[in-house]
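pasting for ref
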Amino acid sequence: MSNDFGELVLVLGDFHIPHRAASIPEKFQRMLVPNKMQHILCTGNLVTKEQYDELRGLAPNVHVVRGDFDDDTTFPDSKVVQIGQFKIGLIHGHQIIPWGDAHSLAMIQRQLDVDILITGNTHRNEVNEYEGKWFINPGSITGAYSTLTTDVTPSFILLAIQGSKVVTYVYELHGDQVDVSKSEFSKA
């Protein structure tokens, strides 16, 4: 991809294929082109090895943590990855009590000593700044239902990391329409 974007990082998770969803929506599948992104960060719940193999075909650097429904128990519970100037922490999120709680997320962020913490589990995409750090949840790429709701919007996030700046692009599928929102974060 063009150097104008810096390093591109695909952030996704909570597939739940085949138990809660049949596949990644077609519109998203067409957008996920091999070798356009340098990294994939997955919050887990791929469930099957086939989903992991598909991710490996998209980017050279694939990082996955174990979700509470993953068959593969070799994925770690948490992982810290350095991409450019940013230390990024990755966990599934079922370990956070209550799920998605800002104070509990901040505690994990401090324990991992990261600039950005990426979690899943809630199946709701979120991009928040809290106490000068960034917290990202890509939601569920398939729109799989969660224990919290059956009304889940399929989503994923693309990060463009360039120097001390990260631009997030949140992709949401509403019917036949893919909506994209953008936000920026700069390291202090």
